[in-house]
Design a protein that fits this description.
The complex is a heterodimer of chains A (248) and B (715). Helix content of chain A is 80%, strand content 1%. Chain B is mostly helical. Among the domains of chain B are: 169 residues, Neurolysin, domain 3, CATH 1.10.1370.40; 75 residues, no CATH class; 137 residues, Collagenase (Catalytic Domain), CATH 3.40.390.10. A five-stranded mixed beta sheet of chain B has the order 3-4-5-7-6, sandwiched between helices. Chain B has a two-stranded antiparallel ribbon with strand order 1-2. In chain B, helix 2 runs antiparallel to helix 3, helix 6 crosses helix 7 and helix 21 packs across helix 27. Classes of the chains: A mainly alpha (248), B mainly alpha (715).
Amino acid sequence: MKVIRFILLSFIFLASFNTFSHNPEDFMIAEIERGQMYFENEEIAAEYGAALKRQRIRRLAAMPFYKKFYIFVKAGFEHIIPQGIDHILFVLGLFFSCITFRALLWQVTAFTVAHSITLILAAQGFVQLRGDIVEAIIALSIVWVAVENVLFKETSKWRYSIVFAFGLLHGLGFAALLTQYGLPKDNFISMLLAFNIGVEFGQLAVLLIAFILIKLIMKKNWYSNEIKIPASLIIAAIGLFWFIERII
Amino acid sequence: MKRLILITALLFIVSCQQESKMDPNINPFFQEWNTPYEVPPFLDIKDEHYMPAYEQGMKENLEEIDVIVNNPEDPTFANTIEELERTGKLLSKVGRVFSNLASSNTNPKLQELQRDLSPMLSAHYDKISLNEGLFNRVDAIWQNRENLDLTSEQAKLLNDTRKGFVRSGALLSEDQKERISEINSKISGLSTSFGQNLLAETNGFELILEASDLEGLSDGVIAAAADAASQKMDAAESDEEKDKYNDKYVFTPHRSSMYPFLTESTRRDLREKLYNSYVMRGDNNNDTDNKKTAAQIAKLRAERAQIMGYKTHAHFILDDNMLKTPEEVYDLLNKLWKPAVKRAKVEVADMQAVADAEGQNFKIAAWDWWHYSEKVRKEKYDLDESAIKPYLSLDNVLQGVFNTTNKLWGLNFTEIFDIDLYHPDARIWEVTDKDGSHLGIFIGDYFTRSNKRGGAWMSSFKGQSNLDGRERPIVVNVCNFPAPVGDDPALLSFDNVVTLFHEFGHAMHGTLTDVKYESMAGTSGPRDFIELPSQLLEHWASEPQVLKSFATHYKTGEPIPDELIEKLLNASKFNQGFINTEYLAASLLDMDWHTISADEDIKDANKFESESMKKVGLIGEIAPRYRTTYFAHIFSGGYSSGYYSYVHAAVLDSDAFEAFKEAGDVFDPNLSSKLRSSIYSMGSTEEAMDLFVEFRGRKPVIEPLLKVRGLDGSE
């Protein structure tokens, strides 16, 4: 009943502004058959999300290269600061484990190389892992490095391999977001690179800030007990909370 | 959550290249739109802005009319007709946005608004069209028209304006006016119940089948029928009713359910049952029977026409059309009828041959048509849609239609990326003329979504006029093509491509328009004419040379092979006897119902219908596309005495395209520019037939259409 009224109303509305249906006939039948429009919010949101991605890709494709590159560097950076709080915690976890700058540099490099590898592989579609699993293990990786900081004084030998392994996972996390966002087909590799550069800048910025804040007190004898261990415990607690949150 | 933030942030970076200049505290409809090209500031417009703007718009509109009516000066063309053109700016500003979005991107709130607004608006427009003071001024100018130095455009505007008042009853006595409004409200009530009855009848029948009744049906069709049954089960209230649908398959007289069944099922008895349920809708002598309702509507319409001074309702309606009298319409339909029925008889013979070869022992009947025509199609016209689609990506097709208008008229399309529209799938282009000047804005919104109405249409967000400076239009095409899956481009069917060209033809009519007065711009012409600019453009889509230029494989870049084009064009001739016969039968039925006189009392609608069909010699294997009792277009929609328009426009477009064929060049420069100057740019500033004759040098003929549809005896 409402449908028919809707059709009649539509005619009035359409007529008043000269709207032309392709084949009003098919359209009328389609309306009768379809019945009243019902609105599934989830469906509309999913359609909207897919349309947004198409729009982004169209807009990106029309941009000059430097602008696109800049946008992806910025996107990568912002994925660390301010949105990537779990990545920040992971990097801070690495930071607190190191007494020397040299050790830190090696660990960060291992992490970077690893997540670059999986980011590229996953964005190309060679590797795939369920998003919720990746997210949960990322939370667990934060707990791991933080707990290690509390238990061991020295950086352990296998630490580099573990950091490398976690890096592989973090890369999958980045990739999931990046595919959702959509990479322009024409400059696939360069934009991937740009995004990665942004991520590196973000990480370096976190380390730099931490370094400036902590440098002066690092050599104090109370540093370990009053800063490093409590901070690591807090990081571990947050990581644990996320892990539980993400598996249920 | 985190992902959402990231995505919004990324989006923000990409999309927010423009900042809104609108004051967020004021309703955007009450502000100047300093947006690029005056595109509506969609992001600033919220659902709650419409109603206040409509109310204010109607108020202002009436005040403006009062100023015109109370002008102490004598009525002149400038102080009355031209001033009328300037009224209602706010109302149209909000109305264009609302009516577009209520169709293409609606929500429950907008639908509710639509229901509230409809009676408000019709009351508002009644106030204007029944304003006596206003009519008297218009009439005084019209009476004196010979002494005024009017351009032909102005003369037509004056004439059309007065005619609008007269057709709303301005010349009638009070008694007559009262009777008309009585008739109108009766018709409106009857139309509503006609529609309700039809819906009830369509939903009232179901063919519930066992697994053993599904012979011949494909997996997809079976799955849909099983789905229908389980939906019925979910909706059922009692266990008993649930039982009825348990493990069953349901088909209904809805076309989307019936056609696949009639095509595939090898069970002739069940085909007959379902088919009959369809053609008997509204004819079951029950509460929802439509026979009397239809006859009453026709009689009331005849009476109304007589009061208005016309012989019949058809005369009244056609007075506003390109074909002016029922005689002209009958003449056209009758000329097409013979070749159509002749072809249909050949199709019956082809099908009978297939049935006989199968060893069947029956004569092809109406319910066999789909099943056996499908067998003929597979044999003679087979076409693999999936082989064609990869050549028809949306972007390629758009490029194809843009190039077509470039070759015809030198137009150029530049996509704009920094304007935000009402939905991210809607795209926007600036259209420039061959000298580089701005011609208009084109918006294309192509993919289907759950808050968009079905079908495809053209509309506009801004009109064109040259009254107070050069105002160029913003037009929009909305379609329902399937959205792309994953990262592949959107691939269209050839049907979709034709639809795209069709709507684009309307869009060009709305873009190339170059008239002084907005009410006569673009697509404002009569219904049996306005499909010419759209259907005409379709011809270029199926022109092999054009098709080859844009239909390239989305992966390999290879152009579409010749043999595929040949198959594609051949397929369009399939079943044309049937299609045209059922359509023409319904058109004739429409005309017959609306050429009755007011004192004719039609007791039996069925008898009326069968006599009407017998008169022309409809064959038993075909029913009219719509029988009286479910002809919603004419009894509950707005197409009375107008169903013929589709074929009339087809005659026009085939004949117009024939001119290019005769010239030996589908982009012949002389013809192209003539097409623009005499049809696409003219709006309704001249009589439609005059426009056609201006282009073609003579009145339209039907032969080119017969050839296009394979009804010229060549098949």
